[in-house]
Every structure is written in structure tokens, then in C-alpha cells.
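Morning!

This is the sequence you dropped in the shared folder:
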Amino acid sequence: MPENSVAALLFSYEKQLAGAGVDSPRLCAEMIVGEAARMGRAQLIAFGERLLSDPELSLAEGMLLRRLKGEPMAYILGRKEFYGYDFSVGPAVLVPRPETELLVDLALGEFERSASVRFADLGCGSGCIIAALLKEAEGWHGIGVDISLPALEICAYNLCNLLGTEAGANFSLCPCSENIDTDFAASPRFRLIQSDFTVSNCLPIAGLDLIVSNPPYIPSHEYLHLNFEVKNFEPRQALESGADGLEHPRAVARVAAGALKPGGLLLMEIGCEQGEAAQELFASSVWREAEIIPDLSGLDRVVRARLA
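The structure's back. C-alpha cells below.
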């Protein structure tokens, strides 16, 4: 079998990736060869004798080298699936995780999809949450907040790509000090704000129905021991959250208390061992119905709290 055939490359790449301790070496090999040759998984199996051209082989070898160094496949490919949709990703944003889809499920289960729901996504990153919600619920309008301008640029791209450019026509990147038009019906379906919600009033608007957030929640001492791929490639500011991991969740609770309408809902992702501590953030009379919702593995995953 020629060395540049699909079958030979899959065998070679899988062996190299396994030797480097990469997770799922066969799957990674298939993704690399499939991307370079523009072949789906079934085609890779059916056409193992197919030879890669020199440009295709060069592309595949480059991706292999990056993966051997530990770079996540999502960054290598430049995309990641979330809630059934493809999102553009890069080193400026976290790679979307399957467990975060629970936030979308819970939000969609609380409100009618055709209703006029106004919501905000604090720490929107790639925009996977806000975009999935706006795609699934045609009556909703959202605000995305993030401290990182590169992240907001990726978020804007994903929103316009998923919803169509008309959905975000003339959307603005608002400074946190600017009052946002509360008449969502007369404005684009989404607005983006660059702001550090731990130190400022990042939402110059009140009366929201819903706030969703997947904030940083990794304690500083645990960050040092994260998986190599996460620690060395994904943005630290989107992961680490102070000594106890609750610096950003506290800020989310504070911002939500001022931005939600009475009875408004907060859905926030947390670490799998933070349930009890996170629930205590909502023990005051400002909140009611605070509960911890587990993911499919039975681990603490989301705080659900309603403003009194």
C-alpha cells in the first residue's frame, strides 16, 4: 500500500498519535486525513486505496504535527459542533463542551420559543450558547457579554453565520457604559458588549427574562493541574476564577440580581464539585428556587435560580 494512501496514512497517524498519548488516536487520525482529503468517515473506510495529492499530504502532515504537540482538534480544524450546529473556534475562545448543552436545553424548556424573551449570555465566548438559543427560538433577543474583543469577533461571526446576516444587521459592539435600547423588537436580534462583568456594571439594562452563563469556575490551584491540552492551549481567562473558583459565579449572581426582572431566571454552569458552594450564593432573600441540576453523568452542572 503506497505511503500516501488513505489506509496507510490512517495506520501511521494512529500509531504516532497513540505513541504520543493523544486521546482517541484513531478518531483524530480519521479527522486529520478526512479534512485534508475532504472525505467523510465512511469514504475513508471505503476508499482506503485513494492517494493524497502533495498539497493534501502537506496539509495532513501539518495538522498531525499540531495534534502531536497537544493542540485540540477543534482549533486545528477551526470548528466544533455544539447543539447540532458547527461553530468557528480558535485560541481566543474555549472549545464548546457537550455538557454545556444542558444550559440550552434548560432555557428552551422554561420559555416558549415563539415568545418575546429577552436574555443575556455573560461570558459568551464563541457564542455557542446565545447563537443556539437564538437559532432554536425565533422570538428571542439576546445580549452577549465578554471581556475579550477577539472572542466577541468570533461570537459575532458565529451569530451571523448561523442566523443569517440579516438577523444581526447593524448590530453594535457596545461599550459597557452605553445604555442599550430596551425596545428589542425594533433592534437587531442580538447585541454584543465588551466588558469585565466582575468589576463593572456590564449590563446597562434591566428587566431581562433570562440570563445564561458558562463563566470561568476553575480554582487557581486546580488550574495548574488541568489537562495539558486545556492548560496550554485554551484561554486562561475563560477558565480560572480565583482561589475558590467562584469569583466569576459570584459576579454573575450580582449582575443577574440587577438585570433580571422580578421572577426572572438565571441558569449558570458550575464545576462538578461546586454545587453546595454555588447554591449558597443564592441564599439571600433576593433569590428563590435556587437548585443544582446535574448533567447526564449525575454531576453538579447548572445552578438554576429565580429572582424574587
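Headline: The chain has two domains: 6-69, 79-307.

More detail when I'm at my desk.
O.
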